Amino acid sequence: MDRIKIDLWVGIFVALGVAALLGLAMKVGNLTSSKIGDTYKVTAAFENIGGLKPNAPVKSAGVLVGRVADIGFDSKAYEAVVTIKIDKRYAFPKDTFANIYTAGLLGEQYVGLEAGGDEDVLQEGDKITQTQDAVVLEKMISQFLYNKASEPNNDSKASDEKAGKEPAATSTELGDAPF
Amino acid sequence: MSANIVEIDNVSFGYNGRMLHKGINMSFPKGKVVAIMGGSGSGKTTLLRLIGGQIKPSKGEVRVDGAVVHEQDREGVYQLRRKMGMLFQHGALFTDLSAFDNVAFPMRELTNLPESMIRDLVLLKLNAVGLRGAHKLMPTELSGGMARRVALARAIALDPCIVMYDEPFAGLDPISMGVICDLIRTLNDALGATSIVVSHDVKETFLIADYVYFVANGEVAAEGTPHDLMQSTLPFVHQFVHGEVDGPVPFHYPATDYRSQLLNYTDTAI
Amino acid sequence: MIKSALNGLIGLLSGIGHRMIARTWRLGAGARLFFLTLMYSGESFRRFHLTLREVYFTGVMSLLIIIVSAFFVGMVLALQGYNTLQKYGSSEAIGVLVALALVRELGPVVTALLFAGRAGTAITAEIGLMKTTEQLSAMEMMAVNPIARVVAPRFWAGVIAMPILAALFSMVGILGGYLVAVPLIGVDDGAFWSQMQANVDVRDDVINGVIKSLVFGVACTMIALFEGFDAPPTAEGVSHATTRTVVISSLTVLGLDFVLTSFMLVV
């Protein structure tokens, strides 16, 4: 096999490899979609973040506006402190509302931002005060079963009594959940 | 002293405590064809490896062109090896290269000659062994004798001053044997080189050698010109030269008494 | 009776000991060959066409087996994945499943296993035979270093070829999965790709996969080279060495994969 033919084949081989890598990066990976330019960081405290992970998306009105940079724990307030970085192109009012949502029923969790009405906008290092915790599925299911059991029907007295006391507490907890 | 290009001075060598050589002395004068003879397993090839610096002697020293081989570093050994050419027992041609590329190999690896000059030199060397017409063939397409000749052309590719032949006649038909025999002598005289021939073929070796060493039991058993050795009355030399079955070199490998071994049923280690 | 049992035990223990010593010796000798190869790589880089020639033999010649295997692996992944995912009503996630499985694990690992069988054995047999027929000895006697001339080009060729083959494997596998999922099963085309893009991270998944295949390339090629170099110069010796190449390479790849994965997931 002469050298020119070998060089040609090796050239084709390497070109195929580069094409495959580019394909993996562009078509399969998030190199094109995750382009976030300059960012500013804000923090938000949650009582429960559920399964939120670093690098999870931050969305507003369904549009990707940033990513979760870091998750820490405040040992004084016993809260989770989530640092999120937001694309500089997007400004949000100071009284923006931060929620932790789940994509689909079992999907990954992400932070949703709902703009408030304040005239001042969030700056680097600011803290979002209004937050809504993640929905924990187990909690939700037990709540649902509980409510189901407490529905007024011709059950025994004991369950009626119990139902009469508890629902008030649970409904406040679930009341402003986004579903 | 200075007339000897290779000197083996009181060399001992062995593997795992078993000594193969016990104090061997040899000298190889410039321009001569010197043969080392001996039975199979007498360590003839090992002597060539000692000269080439592939192994180190346990005792004594080998000097090539005045330099002690085992005291050289890697670069020094490689410098010495550039003065040597070696023909291996089965040719050891590179099976992935054609005859032409095999002969060109040392030139391409060790020199910066332009490709056009390498081509002329390779054809010259192949012509010297009569195989210029076969330069395109691969080693698998060559007969045993032809492969040996291509390997010889490769060994002399860089005009070495020492050419070593490891069993150059083994396994060849009489015609190829005669051709190789002839080539060793003529190339030696044409190059002005020194040839060291390791062989056990008495007839061919005696035909071309100027001086012969006999190696047996790790020692030089006899030495002299072929003519002297033919007349030698030493029992070992006589046995070897005339190819007798039994003599000082026993037919049997050392063993315990035959009768007692046959009778001893419990000896399962047979 | 007791004496013979004791002798048997001693024999067993000394057998284990001998084998341990032999294994350790081989590990050391292999490491030595590795460092010598790195040391003399400069000499071989100056004549890079030697390495390119070996890329041809190890890489280009392995293309067919890699592409065909990848295609089938991708198709099977899609079939199996769909079967399970549709029970949970998330059959769109099939793209993510196929892509992550291939890019993170199957691409580098299966490529390395196939490489050990296709190219590794060829390297071992070739070098073992070169040794048996005294070609390496002849080279040394010509003042040409066999490590620089024979070992180093093959080593770098393997290191270059492996990540390329692994990337091709992943890409072709994903295409195979796409063919099964979208035209055959009827998963939505857009969902297939967009879910994949949302969940495959270039640094965490793609780059880590490339790092894995680089490490596997070094390991597989070095094992094949060492086994060839260390093979006893007989027909039997070379055949045993070739078998060992496949066995040791496969085990090493799987073991290394676990170590690398745990590093990548923790850090």
Kindly describe this structure.
The complex is a heterotrimer of chains A (179), B (270) and C (267). With 179 residues, chain A is an alpha/beta fold. Chain A is built from four helices and eight strands. Chain A has an eight-stranded mixed beta sheet with strand order 7-1-4-3-2-6-5-8, with no helix packed on it. In chain A, a hairpin with a 2-residue loop joins strand 2 and strand 3 (63-74). The radius of gyration of chain A is 25 Å and the shape is extended. The longest helix of chain B is centred in the C-terminal third of the chain and has 18 residues, at 174-191. Chain B has a single domain (4-224), classed as 3-Layer(aba) Sandwich (Rossmann fold), CATH 3.40.50. In chain B, helix 6 links the parallel strand 7 and strand 8. In chain B, 37% of the residues lie in helices and 24% in strands. The termini of chain B are far apart. In chain B, strands 6-7-8-3-9-10 form a six-stranded mixed beta sheet, sandwiched between helices. Chain B has a four-stranded antiparallel beta sheet with strand order 2-1-4-5, with no helix packed on it. Chain B has ten helices and ten strands. In chain C, 88% of the residues lie in helices and 0% in strands. Chain C is built from ten helices and no strands. Chains in contact: A-C, B-C.
Number of domains of chain B: 1
Largest interface: A-C, 31 and 34 residues
CATH level-4 homologous superfamily of chain B: P-loop containing nucleotide triphosphate hydrolases
Mean pLDDT of chain B: 84
Largest sheet of chain C: none
Q: Gyration radius of chain C, to the nearest Å?
A: 22 Å
Low-confidence region ranges of chain B: none
Q: Note the total helix count of chain B.
A: 10
Strand content of chain C: under 5%
Total domain units of chain C = 1
User: Under the CATH scheme, which architecture of chain B would be assigned?
Assistant: 3-Layer(aba) Sandwich
- Quaternary state of this entry equals heterotrimer
Coarse structural class of chain B: alpha/beta
The largest sheet of chain B, given as strand count, sense and whether it forms a barrel, is: 6 strands, mixed
Q: Spell the H/E element sequence of chain C.
A: HHHHHHHHHH
DSSP summary, beta strand count of chain C: 0
Which stretches of chain C are poorly predicted, pLDDT < 50 over at least 5 residues?
none
Query: Which class of chain B in CATH terms?
Result: Alpha Beta
Distance between the amino and carboxyl termini of chain B:
52 Å
User: How much helical structure, as a percent, in the residues of chain B?
Assistant: 25-40%
